[in-house]
Write a structure and sequence with these properties.
This protein is mainly α. The chain has 2 domains: 366 residues, no CATH class; 69 residues, no CATH class. It is 67% helix and 3% strand. It contains 20 helices and 4 strands. Strands 1-4 form a two-stranded antiparallel sheet. A two-stranded antiparallel sheet has the order 2-3. Strand 2 and strand 3 form a beta hairpin. Helix 5 packs antiparallel against helix 14 and helix 18 runs antiparallel to helix 19. The termini are far apart.
């Protein structure tokens, strides 16, 4: 049997009514819509002291590895890359706020990936998802979206600290802030016009205008793929176990769990890949690819790798099989050669992307039953406390603890939800520990 025919049979082309041309174009579409991560992820993680060129190489390599693995093993059009939100938690909370060295933070990412694999093989990961209402999944995503947008507004200078009101409006006439506003408008217009590469065009267009305005200062370094050696295998596993690792590892684990499930459901529904009984075929393979990519990412030198909602753009372009994800992964591999140019991307160019990516993450809030207090109150606390406490862990703690308390106090608790109440108890103990400290 010819190789081409064998591959078409493996990827179920006939059953999915697709072909090589459609899958290739879909993979290119997905890549274009999420290529901004090549610039945004290094700009966030480099604030920890991680070398920019190394993080850029790691970002491209992990996106390539994760996407190809997902396509080849699970046969889904899901592309993977270092997750937005988790990279912000890694940088701004774990490293900058808690003072954890980035090497130890990578160690925590590694342990979260290993736990992912164990939970997948034992089936606990699926039970954990079933124990928590899907509206709370959306609340976590919405809270992280506000967190990311807040970071973008701050990096742009649109929002600045204020002793009187905590934050206030910045100087919009400042050159870098004005450029960021231009980038925000450019990306917004492109999205309204449904230009698939809106994020990438917006970042590069804003940077180009900054060059013309003499606001970009860059000393180009010689290109060297070996730059990844500055982060690869630099994770500190022993250090990760001495930094209050439970909270950090749990957040990496929990947020990626929700993010992956939300993306998975959204993309598979749009592609018509969910079974009649509402189950997702080959779910264990999807989780395996996701967890393995996270472990690989920690070894290469980046934060948690997860599925991207931008995969839905490839699905809209006709992608139905794993070939879409594989094509996206191959394009990310070739993007390794963009590494020397990333140092030219200033904060005012990436800030608009952060703001609007955060906005896109709010779409799931519409699925929350806001007129149902047992759901609405925990969801509200989750959404609000994540950005206001500058901590995804605090937001998760408020949301899950309040949800479990309302279920118990109103007689709605169920014995089969024991895992939810165990998590809530651990979160409550965490609050008591913080208060005592």
């Amino acid at each position: 049997m010819p190789l081409r025919t064998s591959l078409e049979r493996y990827f179920r082309f006939a059953e999915l009514q697709t072909n090589w041309r459609t899958e290739t174009l879909a993979g290119l579409t997905t890549f274009i819509t999420m290529a901004y991560i090549i610039f945004v992820n290094p700009s966030i993680l480099s604030k920890t002291g991680m070398p920019l060129a190394a993080v850029t190489a790691a970002t491209c390599l992990c996106a390539a590895f994760g996407s190809i693995l997902m396509g080849a093993v699970a046969n889904y059009p899901l592309a993977l890359a270092p997750g937005m939100g988790l990279n912000a938690y890694f940088t701004y909370t774990v490293v900058l706020k808690m003072g954890v060295p980035w090497q130890a933070a990578l160690g925590a990412v590694f342990f979260s990936g290993i736990i992912f694999l164990l939970l997948t093989f034992t089936g606990i990961r699926q039970r954990l998802v079933a124990a928590i209402p899907h509206q709370l999944h959306a609340a976590v995503g919405g809270g992280i979206g506000l967190f990311i947008a807040f970071i973008g507004f701050r990096n742009a200078g649109i929002i600045v600290p204020s002793a009187a009101t905590t934050v206030t409006l910045g100087n919009l006439r400042a050159p870098e802030t004005a450029l960021a506003l231009f980038g925000l408008l450019l990306i917004a217009v492109l999205q309204v016009l449904r230009v698939r590469a809106s994020m990438l065009i917006g970042v590069l267009g804003t940077m180009f205008l900054g060059v013309l305005c003499h606001q970009v200062h860059w000393n180009p370094a010689p290109f060297n793929l070996a730059a990844i050696r500055d982060t690869a295998f630099h994770l500190d596993l022993r250090g990760a176990l001495h930094i209050g690792a439970f909270e950090i590892i749990f957040v990496f684990l929990f947020v990626d769990l929700f993010d992956n499930i939300g993306t998975l459901v959204a993309v598979t529904q749009r592609a018509g890949l969910i079974s009649p009984d509402h189950s997702i075929p080959r779910l264990e393979r999807i989780f395996f690819a996701d967890a393995t990519a996270t472990v690989f990412g920690s070894l290469a030198g980046t934060s948690t790798v997860t599925s991207y909602i931008e995969s839905s753009a490839g699905v809209a372009a006709g992608g139905r099989s794993g070939v879409t994800a594989i094509v996206t992964g191959i394009l990310f591999f070739f993007s390794l050669f963009l590494a020397p140019f990333v140092g030219a991307i200033p904060n005012f160019a990436t800030a608009p992307a952060l703001i609007l990516v955060g906005g896109l993450m709010l779409t799931g809030l519409g699925t929350i039953e806001w007129d149902n207090p047992p759901i609405a109150i925990p969801a509200f606390l989750t959404v609000v406390t994540i950005p206001l406490t500058w901590s995804i862990a605090d937001g998760l703690s408020f949301g899950l603890t309040s949800y479990a308390a309302l279920q118990l106090l109103t007689g709605r608790a169920k014995r089969e939800d024991w895992m939810l109440y165990l998590l809530a108890t651990l979160f409550l103990l965490r609050f008591l520990y913080i208060a005592h400290a």
